[in-house]
Write a structure and sequence with these properties.
Helix content: over 70%
Radius of gyration: 21 Å
Shape: globular
Distance between the termini: 21 Å
Order of helices and strands: HHHHHHHHH
Amino acid sequence: MIPARVLWKRETAASRPVRIAGAVMVVNALLLTAHVLHRSGFVLDPDGSWFRLFRTGALWNGGIDGSLMELFGLLQLGAAAVLLLRLGLRNSAHRVLAAWGGVFLLLIADDLCRIHERVGARLALDRLLPSLGATTAQELGGLLFWAVSGLVLVGGLIHLHRRSGARARTESWALLATVVPFVLVAVGYVLVGAVRPDLFGGPWGEVAAMVRITVKLLTMTLLLLRAVQWSAAPR
């Protein structure tokens, strides 16, 4: 007969991802709502009597660096990175998970230090292609930076993926499937903005930006939940 204390611990571990998911999704919803109020408050409340806090506070704008939404997303990604590093470094059969954790830490460093933006600006693609605006050239240069860096990171992931155990490889595939949609949206947003900048003017630009930041935030949430679920799974 299994002791009640052991059963309680198992039930607590099993329900932990559900509780974390619920709490995180509530905060996500509040931050996305605040972003909408910030961007559309002048339409919903022309007099500024109701939504003044959201309209004037740049922290509510999820599309800019240093916003509350970005910081909360990075907090989730950082927690996922720590959990994956802990799992991967404790067991050699899970080393690919540690590699994923390292990649997530690099993404956090890039966001906080604006690495790809700085590299993109230094590449000055607008000098080679004068038709490009400075902002578009910077974004394309940043995309080029990540394309080159991605080859190195993917090579390391493939190497450790092959040397890891079956369960870790399965989780590695799941992490890849979680990341790919955001990568496609982010790359598509930059490329469409470069080719057809007129499409991102007015309401359609707001919709496209909303889709991009929502996918980014939810991707970080899903990565955190996968790391928590793996951590809570029995070995």
